C-alpha cells in the first residue's frame, strides 16, 4: 500500500496508537497547533515544528531567499499565535545543496532574522547539513502561556461566534499567480506578497487570549473548509458559515474578476492564510470585536457560528440558502 | 561564493553575529550539544535537533526502515545524553516520497517507538508532508537536568582525564562496509549494526553527571580528532591523546586486518560513534572509572588528558612519541 492511498492523517493514525503506552508526563495538545508541556508553577510551554521542502512547499524561482527565510519562521510562529502564546525561542535545521551560493543563504538568514527580531524570538540552535538536491528547512519554535491558558481546538461550544482575524484567500490566489505563470501587476502584487511573506498573528493571538469569552483558536493553514473540521471534531460540535460574511481583500476581488477565479473558493478552501480562526462566547463577541478593531489593522470578522450538529459537515449558507462545497479542501464549488 | 568554500561552520558564523541583538532570556549552550533553557525553580531544559537526509546521512538500501527510525531518534538522544540530561519528549518531522510503501513507514515508526519506549520519551508532535524524492527526517528532542547541572563543552580544565564510554570506530567501519560494497560476514556484522542502530548513552550520561569531579561532556558524532577541538576551543585548553589507550572492538581489529584498514584512523577520525567523551578531575577519575565499570557493559576508558596548550592542536602520542594526524576528520594518518 502506498502512502498516497491513506494520506498523512492516515499515517499518523497508524502509528500514534502504538505510542499510547509511553507516559506523556502531563503533556497534551497532540493534534493541536502546538503540543503543550509543563513549564513552571505559573506557565506552560507550547511547541510546534514545520518542515518546508523545495518543490513541495516552495519553488526557488518563485520566492526570494529573504521571504523564504521569513516564511519558514512565520508558519511556525503562526502555530504559537494560535495557542495565544508568546514565542520564546526557535531552532532551525537546514539542508543545503552543495552548489548553493552563500549570498542566497545570507539573504535567507536575513529574512529569518527580521521576523525573529520583530517578535524577540532568539535562535537557540539547529542543524546545518548538505542536501543532495533540494533545499530543506525545518523550524521548531517554543512559546509560553499562563498555565491552563493555551487555546485548544477542543474548546469550542455551541452558539460560539466564529471569527477570523483578516481577509482570506490572498495566499491561495498568490499561489495561483505562481502556478499559472501570470505576470504580477498592480493589486495582484499584494496576493503574491502575502503568499510569500505571511505575517503571523502573534500580537492578535496574545490580545485575544486575554479577553474573557475566547474559546477555541487555531491558525488557518489549510483553509476554513478543512481547518474548521478539526475544531468540530475535537470540540464535538457542528458549524455554520455565512458565505457573504467571509472577508476578502480588494486584491482578491480584483484578481478574481480579471482571471475568472471564484474568490469564495479561494477564501474558504485555499490554504496558507495564517490568519487566526477563533470561537467567542456569543454574549461577549460584540464587545470583543469592537475593542479588537481599535487595536489591529485587519478587522476581526464574524463568519458563522458553532452549532450542535453532529454529522461532521460544515453547513454553508449563502443569502439564507444552503450552499454546497463539493470537493473539500479544493477550489471547486457545486451549484 | 559557494557554501562548499566556507563549510557549515563558516555559514553558522556568518549569520550568528546578526542574531546577537535578540535577548536570549537566560538561555545558553549555543554551539553545545544542546541549547539550555530555563525551566522551573529546580530544573533546566535542554533541546537538540538533527536532520537526516536520504543519500547524505543514509542510503535506503543499506539500512532497514526499523533501524532508520531507531537511529533518527538515537542521534538526538545522544545529544541529550551528552548534557547528562534525562530526555522528556520528542518531535518528528518527516517528508515522504509519494511512492513510498506504508509498510516501510510502519517499520520506521516501530524502530522509533522501540527507542522511545526504552527511555520513556513520548512523541508529542511533528509534521508529516510529501517529499519530491528523498526521505527527510528531522527530530527535535527535549530533556531536563537539575539547574546548572548541564554538562557543557566549556567545562574542561587542565589535568582533567579524558575518557570515552566505549570502543571507537565501529560505526565508521560499518560505513566503509556499506560504501565499499563488502559482503558482511562474521564479526563485521557488529560494525554494520552499530552504524545502523547506535545506542545513545542516556543511562551512562545520567550516571556520570551524578559523580563529583565530572567536567566537560559531549557525544562523539564526528570523531575524537574533530569533536575534542570543540571542548578545547570552548574551554580554552589543549589536549593530548595516547593512541594505544584508545579502545577498539574485536570486530574493528578483525575487519581492519582483513580489509587492510587503519583501525586507529577509524577510531579517532571516523564519525557516528555516539559514545560519550567526558573529562574528569584527575584526583577523582580512578574511583569513578572503577565504579562506572561495575554498572555498564562497555568500559569507561581514559585516552588522554587536558593540557594548558593554547595552539589549538591535539597532541597525539604513540609509544611516548608524537604521532601526526594529517587530515583532520578524515581517515588518513601521516608518518
TrEMBL record, chains A, B:
One of its GO terms (biological process) is thiamine diphosphate biosynthetic process. InterPro entries: PurM-like_C_dom, PurM-like_C_sf, PurM-like_N, PurM-like_N_sf, ThiL-like. Mg(2+) 5 binds at residue 222. Mg(2+) 1 binds at residues 49-50, 127. Mg(2+) 4 binds at residues 33, 48, 79. Pathway: Cofactor biosynthesis; thiamine diphosphate biosynthesis; thiamine diphosphate from thiamine phosphate: step 1/1. Substrate binds at residues 57, 272, 330. Reaction mechanism of ThiL seems to utilize a direct, inline transfer of the gamma-phosphate of ATP to TMP rather than a phosphorylated enzyme intermediate. Catalyzes the ATP-dependent phosphorylation of thiamine-monophosphate (TMP) to form thiamine-pyrophosphate (TPP), the active form of vitamin B1. This is Thiamine-monophosphate kinase. The gene is thiL.
Amino acid at each position: 500500500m502506498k502512502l498516497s492511498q491513506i494520506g498523512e492523517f492516515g499515517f499518523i493514525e497508524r502509528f500514534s496508537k502504538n505510542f499510547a503506552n509511553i507516559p506523556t508526563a502531563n503533556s497534551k495538545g497532540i493534534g493541536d497547533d502546538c503540543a503543550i508541556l509543563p513549564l513552571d508553577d505559573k506557565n506552560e510551554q507550547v511547541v510546534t515544528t514545520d518542515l518546508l521542502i523545495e518543490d513541495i512547499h516552495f519553488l526557488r524561482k518563485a520566492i526570494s531567499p529573504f521571504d523564504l527565510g521569513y516564511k519558514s519562521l512565520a508558519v511556525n510562529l503562526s502555530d504559537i499565535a494560535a495557542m495565544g502564546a508568546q514565542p520564546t525561542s526557535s531552532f532551525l535545521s537546514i539542508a543545503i545543496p552543495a552548489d548553493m551560493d552563500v549570498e542566497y543563504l545570507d539573504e535567507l538568514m536575513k529574512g529569518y532574522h527580521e521576523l525573529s527580531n520583530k517578535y524577540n524570538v532568539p535562535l537557540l540552535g539547529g542543524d546545518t547539513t548538505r542536501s543532495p538536491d533540494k533545499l530543506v528547512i525545518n523550524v521548531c519554535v517554543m512559546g509560553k502561556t499562563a498555565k491552563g491558558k493555551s487555546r485548544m481546538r477542543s474548546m469550542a461550544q455551541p452558539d460560539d461566534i466564529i471569527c477570523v482575524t483578516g481577509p482570506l484567500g490572498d495566499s491561495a490566489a498568490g499561489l495561483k499567480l505562481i502556478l499559472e505563470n501570470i505576470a504580477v501587476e498592480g493589486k495582484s502584487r499584494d496576493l503574491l506578497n502575502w503568499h510569500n511573506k505571511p505575517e503571523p498573528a502573534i500580537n492578535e493571538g496574545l490580545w485575544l487570549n486575554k479577553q474573557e469569552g475566547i474559546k477555541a483558536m487555531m491558525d488557518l493553514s489549510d483553509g476554513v473548509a478543512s481547518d474548521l473540521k478539526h475544531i468540530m471534531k475535537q470540540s464535538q460540535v457542528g458549524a455554520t458559515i455565512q458565505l457573504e460574511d467571509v472577508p476578502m481583500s480588494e486584491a482578491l476581488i480584483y484578481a478574481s474578476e480579471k482571471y475568472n477565479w471564484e474568490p469564495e473558493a479561494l477564501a474558504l478552501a485555499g490554504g496558507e492564510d495564517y490568519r487566526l480562526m477563533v470561537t467567542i462566547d456569543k454574549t461577549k463577541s460584540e464587545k470583543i470585536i469592537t475593542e479588537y478593531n481599535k487595536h489591529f489593522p485587519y478587522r476581526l470578522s464574524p463568519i458563522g457560528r458553532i452549532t450542535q450538529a453532529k454529522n461532521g459537515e460544515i453547513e454553508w449558507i449563502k443569502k439564507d440558502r444552503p450552499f454546497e462545497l463539493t470537493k473539500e479542501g479544493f477550489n471547486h464549488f457545486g451549484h
